# Entry
Amino acid sequence: MTTVLAVANQKGGVAKTTTVASLAAALHELDQRVLVVDLDPQGCLTFSLGQNPDKLEKSVHDVLTGDIGVADVLVETEEGIVLLPATIDLAGAEALLLMRPGREYALKRALASVTGDFDVVIIDCPPSLGVLTLNGLTAAQSVLVPLQCETLAHRGVGQLLRTVSEVQQITNPDLALLGALPTLFDARTTHSRDVLADVSDRYQLPVLDPPIPRTVRFAEATASGATVLSGRKSKGAKAYRDLAVNLLAHWNDGSAVKTYSPAEGVGA
Ligand SMILES: Nc1ncnc2c1ncn2[C@@H]1O[C@H](COP(=O)(O)OP(=O)(O)O)[C@@H](O)[C@H]1O
Ligand SMILES: [Mg+2]
# Structure
């Protein structure tokens, strides 16, 4: 059985792309066959996995709008993750898709032919709630929401959760809200924890364990075209490895996903 996970938040800079790349690398280390899908026209995931979006001839855009099969577009990264890449062409896909019936299902339909080759598929959504994100949420079984733990982090969460609930009602009744993943987390102050406690209370949102600490290693990794897991030892890499173990246990034996209690500052 393949698990398809969408990583979404219409806010930019909350570590969606970093989470997709790092979690994919961590799952790959656990012998999972992992496909990542770049649904952002900026192509940041594509770039951060060592591919130059400007030099790719085919991309997810051709898959969503044309007749090209996914298998013809996939590239394998040096770390062994398989990528469905994005280029700036994808910026035009939104307008093309809007004219089509069943536009929210384009990605789901396209992925159907390759899903069986993978254990986990992770979709990196763009920073908007437009038709590309709706495609990501429609193709997924569950959605993870990275949340940067700073003041006003909650702004927009309500809107995102409304979108998730609309997708559940209209295009994907099986979509499960996995929870919020605290990112850029500063364990040294109580501020991050206070923000998290506020957001999870306000929206009854489970908080996934462990929070991902803020560390400079992520910027270094992006520049090198490999994930933080292939670089020097870091607490950020460890956090994503622990998250991968938690999620895999949840997916494999159906146990409740491990959550973090911001009030106590510990995993539960
Ligand atoms: N845990 C972290 N610590 C420090 N910097 C991070 C961390 N996670 C992500 N970043 C940095 O934050 C920026 C935005 O991250 P990104 O994953 O591109 O966000 P998004 O996809 O939500 O726009 C990037 O420069 C990335 O390297
Ligand atoms: Mg991104």
Remarks:
- The pocket of adenosine-5'-diphosphate (ligand 1) is lined by residues 12-18, 44, 127, 183-184, 212, 214-215, 218-219, 222, 236 (CB under 6 Å).
- The chain has ten helices and nine strands.
- The longest strand covers residues 176-183.
- The longest helix spans residues 235-253.
